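User: I'll paste a sequence; please echo it back and then give the predicted structure.

Assistant: Echoing your sequence first, then the prediction.
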Amino acid sequence: MTVKDLIEELQKYNPNAQVVTISVGNRNEWNYTDNPKLTSSKNMFGERVFIN
């Protein structure tokens, strides 16, 4: 997946959203995948999109 593809996937959730932070969980290494899965979680502060 390219950065352009990732941006297009993220825009499906909210085209006006801005990326605030990108963080890697409690891991020492990145896990590589060609086909990441996106999930989201909403609360009163906004929405978080997780890339798994």
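The longest strand covers residues 38-43. Residues 1 and 33 are 8 Å apart (CA to CA).
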